[in-house]
Amino acid sequence: MSGRDELIKLTNEKLKAKATEGKTETPINAEQVDAIFETVLDILKTGDRVMIQHFGSFVRKVQAPRLARNPQNGQKIEVPARVKLDLQATAPHFELNEKELEFLKKEEEKRVAAAQKAEEAKKTAKHGKQKVA
User: Fold this and answer.
1) Exposed (0-12), middle (13-18) or buried (19+): which is 25, by Cβ within 10 Å?
2) Helix (H/G/I), strand (E/B), else coil: 20
3) For residue 69, what are the β-bridge partners?
4) What would the 3-class secondary structure string for 67-103 be?
5) Measured between alpha carbons, how far is 24 from 94 in angstroms, rounded to an integer?
6) What are phi and psi of 56, to 5 degrees?
């Protein structure tokens, strides 16, 4: 998992690459990244959702109070309600490589074969019942 420093480093590398392509981009620093995250958190504290196009939406979710079990002694404990942050990711916008496409094709073929086999078994069972009757 990448942290804030890794995010800054990778972002600056992308910005430098764009600068070499003739697109001028200003590098970012830690304060700017912190400001972005603080702004997202401030918006979430008001109860609004934060949507970042082609990435996802951050939303606040309230987890209801519940009874849980202490795994060490089995004793039931009451867990209070709490607020959680949830990221609802959008569909990725990238193309699959050949290996991934082949895997998906094989999985689809397996699914179709299993469905056909189940249909054949249904027909066989149906015809078998008709012969007996």
Assistant:
1) middle
2) helix
3) 76
4) EEECCCCCCEEEECCEEEEEEEECCCCCCCCHHHHHH
5) 25
6) 160, -175
23 close to 39: Cβ distance less than 8 angstroms: no
Helices first, then strands: H and E counts in the chain: 3, 5
Q: Where are the domains of the chain?
A: 95-133
Residue 56: CA atoms inside 13 Å, Cβ hemisphere, count? 10
Name the one residue in this structure whose structure tokens are 């959008």. Answer: 90
Residue 27 pLDDT greater than 80, yes or no: no
- Residue 115 is which amino acid? A
pLDDT for position 68: 94
Residue 90 has pLDDT above 70, yes or no: yes
| 15, 33 Cβ separation under 8 angstroms | no
Report the length, in residues, of the chain.
133
On whether the pTM is more than 0.85, the answer is no
Average pLDDT over residues 14-31: 75
SS3 87: strand
Mean pLDDT of 120-126: 83
